[in-house]
Amino acid sequence: MKRVIAMVFLLTQIAFGQSGQRPAGVSAGEAQAVPPIKMFDNFYYVGNTYVSAYVLKTSAGLIMIDALHDQWTNISLEAMPKAGLNPKDIKYLIVTHGHQDHFGGAKAVKDLSGARVALTEADWKLMEGGRDSAAAPKRDMVITEGQTLTLGDTTIKFYVTPGHTPGIASMEFPVFDGGRQYKAFLFGGHNVTSNQPQAFEQMIASVKRLSSTLTGVSAYFTSHPWAASVVEKGALVRARKAGDPNPYIAPADFLAFMKERLTDHEARLSQMRR
């Protein structure tokens, strides 16, 4: 009982500090390696402290979500066997958006595994027309609003949620803890980093739409780990004993996060228009 109370306290502290704003001192240049985290029976974290990469295990192979960039791609792929995952079993690579820190490793993943690569139409264009276009994979699958992707026993449902970029891909999918199923949601781009009012308007519309249509979300994740305390909760998972709660199962955290994202972007847009 004391252990459960202590874990609940730690989770409360993590949730209290959560925000979509990047903490000071966190950047691509200061990224640190993170041992792979088995967050659920079928869902793993293989990113670093700056940018996320995930693997969803199915009965017919692996789905990777984002591929990191530069040297981090190899580190991510090398970490997978430590979690019992074979990178050659990757069947699909879903890229949440067309920024290099998320698609930079796509070619390496495809060359190793032959995986299909998927982005939204808007972010295929963003990636292909950007300054890092030389690193872009060859155009392949196009993600659309409401589309589903099924591999083996697992189905992902996609949402196109513009704001961070014109065509952010977000998604819901099942995760399992001790065999029990939960709904997970991954927000592919949770923050506006431009100074364009249109981007803020798009983000606000995306958050409102998700908040009004998504129900029953028990666990949420983001394309950068600090916004969902992925690494911090991973430390709790590694110390978890039989009977301890899974720190990633936190429906109230998701609702609070979406509310905070809406409030933040509405305030920033209002200030911009003054």
If you had to describe this structure to a student in words, what would you say it looks like?
The model is unreliable at 1-17 (pLDDT under 50). The protein has helices at 2-16, 71-79, 100-103, 106-113, 121-129, 197-213, 230-238, 251-272; strands at residues 37-40, 43-45, 54-58, 61-65, 90-94, 116-120, 141-143, 148-151, 154-160, 169-177, 180-187, 217-222. The radius of gyration is 18 Å and the shape is globular. A hairpin with a 2-residue loop joins β1 and β2 (43-45). The chain has 8 helices and 12 strands. The chain is α/β, with parallel strands linked by helices. The relative contact order is 0.16. The protein has a single domain, classed as Ribonuclease Z/Hydroxyacylglutathione hydrolase-like (Metallo-beta-lactamase, Chain A), CATH 3.60.15.10. The chain has a 7-stranded mixed β-sheet. A 5-stranded mixed β-sheet has the order 8-9-10-11-12. α6 packs antiparallel against α8.
